[in-house]
Design goal:
Strand content: 15-25%
Helix content: 25-40%
Mean pLDDT: 90
Low-confidence stretches: 115-119, 121-130
Radius of gyration: 27 Å
Strand order of the largest sheet: 8-9-7-10-11-6-12
Length: about 625
């Protein structure tokens, strides 16, 4: 008798045995989907192996065989197993994270008879020497630093041509759909139409169609967001990752994989080259470059903001201005006046939504908070509503204090709406345009642009003479060891928007006045950051694992987190376990949350031990998730 080893998309770290009925015995093989019973449910499972033995006494049979031929190849199964081991998820969860929704639902998949159709024939023209030129197609990692997207794609061309000439396929990853579309358009100028876009759209049928094309060899280049790293190419020859430091590559659901790290796994598994690129490398990649694990190629960036002056406006000098609650310094106000008079454009960057940070009662101190989260509600003037930015909860602005009934409701803090209000007050004749998630249309005649981080994600390119950053200090107040790294990248991006000057308003000028920031010497800033990270035993010198516990009852969640800590703190000398702390915010969407941080040199070395111990521990009334390398 034969038994199927079936992985299920459940948070249970186990592969389940099922009896293969005699009439299905010939067609059952690893890589097929099967329908099975699990408890009272009928589920779609993934056959990952076949055994002649089982320890299960009362074994259930497979209900149905969905695929007559395997749709998941050996490399796909191995890659998802590696993802499962590294990210502490079940194998089934890793498989489902890599597949389109319709495949997970059990819909039929169309695979060609040969399993692979011929690749397109490309007219590979002679190109200029690129900075990535190499005839070695075995596994290696190259980091391309600098340049615009167009310049980087030109640098990739020689390697793309060589891979296509060998009748192999290419995956190009970008963190955002809009950037993917831009890359797609640029690639189509030099290559055939055997290029597709994969970005887990709202149309599952279209996602399945693209997956089938990749599986059948109908396309040669796939451009996509993070999930495209799992594209089922049988003959993959190259992976390219644009903006490798972007946070869009980190999945927010189990197995919480990072597409860059999965690409590294796949490139090693299939012995192919991997190209990473960014103007501001992640510190992990920068450290790998320093250790010569990656080779470096540079592009001289003509638009990186050379010649742009960085001015620091010390807001502590303007005490009277702060009392009047004016949001811009005399330095920035003067620049605004001159820009309007001379016909220049100026952009003011403020990464805060709404009008006021919170609403409170001046008499009793009551602050209006979200009913589902332990967060203050932000006041949006345009909507005339109080809104929770975490769960979307909305509330009408109270006329009287809900606690003391006094008519002393006041606003505190500021956002993009308040800044625009002040600009209209000071510059009533100026044409002002707003750029945020709700306002993405740019007025070409605008003299003053006021923008959140959305300015970096628009379809059009913004270029102005002066950029004013209202409050970058908040980036340093985030409880995240990556805050400096993120801030340096943000300053570089803001500087690239300006042609003359970047003005940074701050109450901590000592930090921003350092020569390395004034000249934006990224290598010196990163070197100092690496030194600090090493002293504190933080990535890239160690790996972090976050155990996240949540429960509807505060006391139960807190007790469970302490119980888990006590059971894990001494399980291995190479694992450092920290006491549980409240998550920020403590309550989110009705769940009370606690985090336990683990430090380890190599997560894989402790994977089996930690998975086994977590499986044995019972946490009543509490849910647990595990995230490796949290961002």
């Amino acid at each position: 008798m034969k038994y199927a080893r079936v992985a299920l998309g459940l948070p249970i770290d186990e592969v389940f045995d099922y009896l293969i009925p005699e009439h299905l015995s010939k067609d059952c093989s690893a890589g097929c989907r099967v329908g099975v019973s699990f408890g009272r449910r009928d589920l779609i499972g993934y056959l990952v192996g076949i055994s002649l033995k089982t320890k299960i006494k009362k074994i259930k049979p497979i209900n149905r065989l969905i695929d007559s031929k395997p749709i998941l190849d050996k490399n796909f199964l191995k890659l998802t197993e590696m993802v499962s081991d590294y990210y502490f998820s079940s194998w089934g969860q890793a498989i489902e994270a890599a597949l389109p929704a319709d495949i997970r639902r059990g819909l039929a998949v169309s695979i060609s008879e040969t399993g692979l159709l011929p690749l397109g024939i490309f007219d590979v023209k002679g190109r200029n020497d690129s900075s990535l030129g190499s005839n070695d197609n075995s596994h290696k990692v190259t980091f391309l630093r600098g340049g615009s997207i167009g310049e980087r794609l030109k640098a990739y061309e020689e390697q793309i041509d060589r891979v296509l000439a060998q009748r192999k396929s290419i995956i190009v990853l970008s963190p955002e759909v809009k950037q993917c579309l831009n890359i797609l358009d640029l690639l189509k100028k030099n290559y055939s139409d055997r290029i597709e876009l994969a970005c887990r759209k709202h149309n599952p049928k279209e996602d399945l169609g693209i997956w089938e094309k990749a599986k059948n060899g109908i396309i040669d280049i796939l451009v996509g967001t993070r999930a495209a790293v799992f594209a089922p190419f049988i003959n993959l020859g190259l992976i390219i990752i644009e903006h490798e430091d972007a946070y869009g590559y980190k999945d927010e659901r189990s197995p919480y994989y990072h597409a860059r790290d999965v690409a590294l796994m796949r490139a090693q598994l299939e012995n192919i080259p991997l190209v990473l690129s960014s103007n501001t490398p992640s510190l992990e990649s920068y450290y790998a470059l320093k250790r010569k694990k990656y080779s470096l190629a540079n592009i001289a960036d003509k638009d990186a903001g050379q010649g742009v002056k960085i001015t620091i406006a010390d807001m502590r000098q303007y005490g009277q201005r702060q009392k009047t609650k004016m949001l811009f310094s005399p330095v920035l106000e003067d620049k605004l006046h001159k820009a309007i008079q001379s016909g220049k454009k100026i952009l003011i960057f403020i990464n805060r939504k709404g009008y006021a940070g919170f609403v409170y009662c001046q008499k009793c101190g009551y602050i209006v908070t979200c009913d589902k989260c332990s967060l203050r509600l932000i006041f949006y003037f345009e909507e005339k509503k109080l809104v929770c930015n975490s769960c979307g909860f909305k509330k009408t602005l109270p006329e009287l204090c809900p606690e003391c009934n006094a008519n002393y409701i006041r606003f505190k803090g500021y956002g993009i709406e308040k800044l625009i209000s002040q600009l209209h007050l000071v510059f009533p004749q100026a044409k002002i345009s707003r750029i945020d998630k709700e306002h993405t249309d740019l007025n070409p005649d605008a003299q003053i642009l006021v923008a959140t981080e959305m300015v970096f994600h628009c379809d059009w390119t913004v270029k102005v003479e002066v950029v004013g950053a209202i409050n970058l200090d908040t980036a340093l107040n985030i409880v995240n060891f990556r805050s400096n790294e993120k801030l340096y990248a943000l300053i570089l991006r803001l500087k690239s928007l300006a042609s003359e000057e970047l003005i940074i308003q701050t109450v901590i000028p000592e930090f921003f006045s350092r020569i390395e920031i004034a000249n934006l010497e990224i290598d010196k800033l990163y070197a100092a950051e690496l030194k600090e990270r090493k002293a504190l035993k933080l990535p890239p010198f160690v790996h972090l694992i976050m155990l996240r516990l949540r429960g509807k009852n505060l006391q139960r969640a807190q007790n469970s987190s302490m119980d888990l800590y006590e059971k894990l703190k001494n399980i291995n000398k190479s694992l450092e376990v920290f006491e549980p702390i409240e998550a920020i915010p403590l309550k989110l969407r009705g769940w009370f949350r606690f985090n336990i941080l683990l430090k380890v040199s190599n997560p894989l070395a402790l994977s089996k031990l930690l998975k086994k111990r977590l499986k044995e521990i019972r946490l009543p009334g509490t849910k647990l998730s595990v995230e490796v390398d949290p961002q």
